[in-house]
């Protein structure tokens, strides 16, 4: 059982540094959008992001060497759910791609991901991306002091399942700060009123993985890439969220996202 006292409360200095890290992570996604086109490989997207983060931002790409992860970003394509490894796969029209960026700046992490479509997506591709985006914002909408982690998961699950999609259970959002992953675990399913109560100064990610088919997943032999068992399309969006006195502040929201 998680106890509220296990969850770090950030001070004003931590929060300011988390704002900077979050803004930089979002900027990488703004930057990479125009490069997501038919003919490009996910390895090329990785290189462009790596260069931008290290040279332009003077920051560190957190995934690189994290528990042995070999690249600087995660690229999860079509039926890949999360933790896809950039490689020689060439993007083609109708692909849907999640790009997940985590940067470390001044010792603090900012973590965010979005979906990108290559050309016009299929109807189902567009739909699973839209449902995952709305699911994230349904979760964000309930964040305020006194709400519980279960309230967040419940809002996400009820919405996504109501849209005849499914929510992946095996991976979740997480507290974030000087550590990439810390308490609490933020499940994207649950029951209202369950789990610890939120307090101002907590910072965590919300990052629902939504499948067009069944919720079950499997891990590929590369030990990183997670895919849907039924090979249905999967989509995910992620923000780093600060609990404020009045609700929430999205540390990874860019002016370009709406
Ligand atoms: N950014 C992912 C998350 O949202 C974690 C990636 S871990 C990696 O939590 F090692 F695969 F990069
Ligand atoms: Co995350
Ligand atoms: Co992430």
Report on this model:
The protein is an alpha+beta fold and 258 residues long. It has a single domain, classed as Creatine Amidinohydrolase (Alpha-Beta Complex), CATH 3.90.230.10. The chain is 27% helix and 24% strand. The protein is built from 4 helices and 15 strands. It has helices at residues 12-32, 42-56, 123-141, 149-162; strands spanning 60-61, 74-77, 80-82, 96-105, 108-117, 166-167, 173-175, 182-186, 203-206, 209-211, 217-219, 226-228, 234-236, 239-243, 248-250. β4 and β5 (108-117) form a beta hairpin. α1 (12-32) packs across α2 (42-56). The chain is globular, with a radius of gyration of 17 Å. The structure holds 2-amino-4-trifluoromethylsulfanyl-butyric acid (MF3) and cobalt (II) ion (2 copies).
As residue ranges, the low-confidence spans are none
Oligomer: single chain
Strand element count: 15
Overall 3D form: globular
What is the CATH class name?
Alpha Beta
Bin the strand percentage. 15-25%
- What is the makeup of the main sheet? 4 strands, antiparallel
Strand and helix order: HHEEEEEHHEEEEEEEEEE
Identify the bound ligands.
2-amino-4-trifluoromethylsulfanyl-butyric acid, cobalt (II) ion
What structural class is derived from the secondary structure elements? Answer: alpha+beta
**Rg, please?**
17 Å
| Mean of pLDDT | 97
| CATH superfamily label | Creatinase/methionine aminopeptidase superfamily
CATH fold title: Creatine Amidinohydrolase
Number of domains: 1
